[in-house]
Amino acid sequence: GVCRKLYRRYSESLELEQITFILDDDPNTIGWKAGKPPKITICIGGPYLQKYMNNNGTEEMADEVKGIMWHEYTHGYQYDDGNSNAIIGIIEGVADCVRYLAGFIDISQRRPGGSWDSGYKTSGFFLAWLQEEYQGGDPEFLYKFNQSFAIDDGITWTKEAFKDITGETVEALWDKYQDAISYGVK
Fold first, then answer.
1. What pTM did the predictor assign?
2. Which InterPro entries does the entry link to (predicted)?
3. Which of 134, 33, 22, 130 is nearest to 74 (CA)?
4. Which residues contact 17 (CB under 8 A, 6 or more apart)?
5. How many C-alpha atoms does 96 have within 13 Å on its Cβ side?
6. Backbone phi, then psi, for 44, in 5-degree steps?
């Protein structure tokens, strides 16, 4: 699932040989991923899930677990050129974009405002818009975007990746996206 969103060929994908799952009792934990391929750890917060289930029901909670797993698995599989601390917002955005494309974030949660690199849903919906809607959509956008973070290519990721892929600056794209979701401008 996740690899099909990020890669075109199996040979491009990072390999995960060992995944350790943790159910954390910290009430502030939703989910996180630690480690690097081939060995990663994924944690989900038990108190968060209990509260989510109490507020939304068992079926919705099961979908939330699936969504968290899509997000965290994305972190395990996505390329990261070692600069992720400097670009954490966009790294989180890629994971939420994959989660959305998999059907585990509803479009009704998309909101105007923020910045292209605010992270999570804000950045994720922007990336999904570039893939699905901008200039009729580019089904290869997320693949190309993930490739821009290629490991060991000697290139540190910058926002110029947006221009390399679309021909426009990220600022211009963000403005068009904000107009599209705020006013329905195509």
1. 0.95
2. Uncharacterised_BSP
3. 33
4. 37, 38, 39
5. 24
6. -125, 140
CA–CA dist 12, 15 (Å, integer): 9
Alpha helices (H) along the chain:
2-6, 46-56, 58-77, 88-101, 120-132, 141-147, 160-166, 170-183
Q: Domain spans of the chain?
A: 2-183
Q: In angstroms, rounded to a whole number, what is the distance separating the alpha carbons of residues 129 and 140?
A: 12
Question: Measured between alpha carbons, how far is 35 from 127 in angstroms, rounded to an integer?
Answer: 25
The alpha carbons of the chain give a radius of gyration, in whole angstroms, of 17
| pLDDT single digits (tens) 15-53 | 999 999 999 999 999 999 999 999 999 999 999 999 999
